[in-house]
UniProtKB/TrEMBL annotation:
Protein name listed in UniProt: alpha-L-fucosidase
Enzyme class name: hydrolase
Species assigned in the record: Paenibacillus alba
Family, per entry: Belongs to the glycosyl hydrolase 29 family.
Taxonomic lineage from the root: Bacteria, Bacillati, Bacillota, Bacilli, Bacillales
All residue ranges annotated as the Glycoside hydrolase family 29 N-terminal domain in the record: 10-338
Amino acid sequence: MTAAAKLKKEENMNKRWERTEWFREARFGMFIHWGLYAIPARGEWVRSFEKLSNQDYEPYFTEFNPDRYDPRAWAKAAKAAGQQYAVLTTKHHDGFCLFDSEFTDYKAPNTPAQRDLIKEYVEAFREEGLKLGFYYSLIDWYHDDYPAYGDRIHPMRDNEAYKDRSIQFERYVDYMHAQVKELLTNYGQIDVMWFDFSYDDMTGEKWRATELVNLIRSLQPDIIIDNRLGGHIKAAEPEVYAGDFYSPEQIVPPGGIVDENGLNVPWEACITLNDNWGYHAKDQAYKSPKQVVRALVECISKNGNMLLNVGPDARGEIPTQSLQILTAVGEWMQRNGQSIYGCGASELPKPEWGRYTQNGNMLYAHVFDRGIGPIYFQGLKGKIKKARLLADGSELKVSLPWMAEQYSDTDSGAFIHLIGAELSDDMDTVIALELVSEVINVESRS
């Protein structure tokens, strides 16, 4: 590699790190899957799973009228939950657009809703001071020029009537690029462009991905883009379309995400509250607030974010169960958000009682398991300047119990005694430790 090429590569990596600064500070966002599929209420993949044709799906278009749609209520719920940004589906795989696109009639203004629903979302979340993201599906089961027969996931993949249908895929790609341009031109500053998703040979330059990213950067230089256009974000030299952040789905990676150079890659686990992204009336398999908080902490402890999904119903309301969970998480965040925002991993090994997050010389011990006796902090003897219970700021003493003096590992460890047999917060009791130095923080490029 020439010196000029190395310099360009380093410049691109630095720009990605700069663009994602707010993202790595925010750590917690709201994902919103909403569209026509809220009416059948069997999940956002209902068209594919049930092999519904455009005609089969048409009744949902003709009756879509979310009379209780109030994006300000959504935004207030997100903010109260401690979420710092949101990403809403502008178009999902079914091809239906919540925005007023000039390139299709298959859009919200042509339903009984009779308006641009994305415009209202943008205004509402902006009023609450939250960052804004647009989800846009690369896949389109409505468009005549998107491959159908023989495709792995298209609703008409087995329909012989589509076998010899002539399509012009480039015409679809032109359409897709034009809609992305609309989204990034008509609504002011947008912070996240969340594409979904590449698969099989439908990836990378099949979408004319380099051209698309160059278009996006020309319109919104500071926007961050996920990695689902394709490419290899973890490569030593990722493609221009490889994205700014990695997007694991329904899983928290066993370790943090690093590239082939050993450098941290920004990432965000997208997680559902129940078992579906879109509204499913029969799905009651909701995660508890404790599960959500602990999964969020796990993400942060590995230098990642969490994008937590809600699926509003056909009338436009977030389900009551989802709101109850968000409220409980928000109450925990009000007391303990300092251990989430701007925090990342620590070099300390994962403790047996929970996890660590860290921001500079502030180390946060997330205690999940009370155990018996004092809490042991391996490797921190003489390194704790001050210890406080984060929820209320109450002082905690660092001391060596008399019964522990005989153990050799006390030469490097510290102990804190918590009063009582149970944790003060069963979801996650957080101890804030001010350290003498910040040398063990690892939320950095190297």
